[in-house]
Design brief:
The protein is of the alpha/beta class. It is built from 7 helices and 17 strands.
């Protein structure tokens, strides 16, 4: 028997959709390829989510979400969706564990980072070039270089700058982050900001570390680093959605049986509160779409 809803991705949007659908009594399968909670694991502090007047660290908010999902009976299946398609009136999600069918689907697969370009990464240093900082939160005494000039770059710096030495490299002059984040970063003794500075070369230093060579208005610069972090933007992750499903996506969205929610569709409006609202709205819409025909049949049967 097919499920009612397949949800792809267990970030804030996917968790909210699965929890709301479960509250309606719908049969839900929630898949997560990596780590439930999404990019919130990287967030220094979430200050615009209602209910937390002093803000809350991203990982703490994730734990609260997961606790609520567990209490609400939502099971997270830790498998990637390798392909999502439509056939014979059902959505089909292929995972390593098999093929799962459902009458509706919620795509909450989030984003993937834009990769740093303009220089080669030696094989020995590939593990030191990263795009998320959740794994470094509890580390100290490191030298970290962050490339970027948006909210993520400055937020990552604030996460790491208390216990480490952090350099933010902006390839241009314009800063695209919230003024408040920039003020906090520039006030942190452990953070240095360098505009118009671009990485030109990575090299393995004599003791096995990493040397980051840069161009700058003052000439070539060189610094040692334990990690180089890319924070230059993110793109929707939709590789698993079949070409045929993409062609019919608008049709299924109009029918109310397919929903794209959270960061996968929100562009510059990637905020936790928006993602949660997206997920709840999607589940409510699916419930209305799936249940309304049944109610109508019941009404007609009683009338007859």
């Amino acid at each position: 028997m097919p499920e009612d809803v397949i949800v792809v991705g267990a970030g804030p949007a996917g968790l909210a959709a699965a929890l709301q659908a479960h509250r309606y009594g719908l049969r839900v399968r929630l898949f997560e390829a990596f780590r439930p909670g999404g990019l919130l694991w990287n967030a220094n502090r979430v200050e615009n989510y209602p209910g937390f007047p002093d803000g809350i660290p991203g990982p703490d908010l994730v734990r609260a979400f997961l606790a609520q999902a567990a209490a609400g009976g939502v099971e997270i299946i830790l498998e990637p969706v390798l392909a999502l398609d439509w056939a014979d009136g059902l959505f089909r999600a292929a995972t390593p564990g098999g093929v799962n069918e459902a009458r509706a689907a919620v795509i909450a697969s989030g984003t993937r980072p834009r990769l740093l370009t303009g220089f080669a990464v030696p094989e020995e240093l590939r593990a030191r070039v990263i795009y998320e900082v959740a794994g470094l939160r509890d580390r100290s005494g490191m030298q970290i270089v962050i490339v970027g000039a948006g909210d993520a770059a400055f937020d990552y710096a604030l996460t790491l700058g208390v216990a480490n030495s952090v350099i933010i490299l902006n390839r241009g002059e314009q800063v695209r982050c919230l003024p408040l984040l920039r003020e906090r970063a520039l006030a942190c003794p452990g953070i240095t900001y360098r505009p118009s500075t671009a990485v030109t070369r990575l090299a393995v230093d004599p003791v096995g570390g990493m040397t980051v060579e840069c161009s700058s208005p003052h000439g070539p610069l060189e610094t040692n680093a334990d990690y180089l972090v890319g924070a230059i933007g993110r793109d929707p992750y939709l590789d698993f959605v079949s070409a045929s499903l993409r062609e019919r996506a608008s049709e299924f969205e109009e029918q109310g049986i397919l929903h794209f929610v959270g960061d996968v569709k929100n562009g510059i409006f990637r905020q936790t509160a928006i993602a949660v609202g997206d997920g709840i709205r999607a589940a409510m819409s699916i419930h209305h779409t799936l249940e309304e025909p049944a109610h109508e049949r019941d009404r007609l049967d009683r009338k007859g």
